[in-house]
Amino acid sequence: MSAPGAIPGDPPGGRRALAVWGVGVGVYFVAIIFRTSLGVAGLDAADRFDVNASALSTFSIVQLLVYAGMQIPVGLLVDRLGTKKVLSLGAALFTLGQLGFALSPSYGMALAARALLGCGDAMTFISVLRLGSRWFPARRGPLIAQVAALFGMAGNLVSTVLVARLLHDVGWTATFAGSSVAGAVALVLVLLFLRDHPGDTAAGIRVRRRAEVVRARPREPGFVRRQIALCWREPGTRLGMWTHFTTQFPAMVFMLLWGMPFLIEAQGLSRATAGSLLTLVVLVSMVVGLVYGQIIARHHAARVPLALGTVAATALVWAATLAHPGDRAPMWLLITLCVVLGAGGPASMIGFDFARPANPPERQGTASGIVNVGGFTASMTTLLAIGLLLDATGGDYRAAFSCVFVLEALGVVQILRLKGRAARLERERLVASRVEAVHVPA
Q: Residue 395 sits in a domain of what CATH number?
């Protein structure tokens, strides 16, 4: 018997779905460890390669530039080739990138290694989202996406706690080379246990048939351009991208590179205390992700208020921190800042929930890629702006971090512009799908 709210042909979920999806999430977990490991090693990297703030930010900018640039191509690949092939390639690339970063003797080679890591990392999250939609009922989509992001935050936690300690205890090469072993293990698990869809169930048969159709279409002239254009034409896709753009980047910039230097150099905290505050951001993200996922699964109308509320809270607390009189903000305010930043990652996941109902299954990967471009483009822009402003102002973090408000304002304007039309079209599609579910057999 179908679960309440299910429609004919919905994926079944269950233990097998959890096991297969868990393999994909494990790859994403490792990718996040590799992605964020530079966040606790920024000062070490500056010393190792003898670079200034702008050059240091280039590490993360190159990584995110490759990541963002790969999102739409990866979405197209996932739609055409399936999750297993793309996720396997991603695991191989980010493992090689992490190992190369460990062994790089020069700044240029280290940049190339981060670019390779970014390329592999780009293939993980969209693949995990696709895997979840293939193995779990559609009504579970918001919660499944948030739980996947929660495991990503757990990877971030490993970086802030374990990688930071290992850097201090065993040094640069041993830390980064040793961590690359986790990538090799993840690749083996994907090759052995991951499956694209639930096999011979009704849902699996439908998925397989759609995949065969999509694989045939790229031979048609203009397929890629048409696939991207159809996704972009949907207001839900664009709303998702701008939601991701506006909510993700403040926490991403803080965790990926500039949080540790800001807390140590501008706020005078010890490395241990700064690491604890970064850990707080991760822990809050894990809790808020579960809460947001449950709320959105039950009340879709809460998506825009949650996203805008998170942006407003972030802007307010950042402004209070940067405008606080004196050289250093009090600890209670820094703790509040980290708590609020922790909501940014879960809020960015709302963007995928705008794009998912706006696009048919054969365009889900491409649509997710477009959404994911948003936050990483904002993060890349802000990383560069902060580095340049720090060099131009002689290390004035207040002036440098003020660029956050410009991008938040741009994103809020776009969200307000698109939300009405996207909601109207989503309601129309929901009614149509319910009618089809009643009249069309599985």
A: 1.20.1250.20
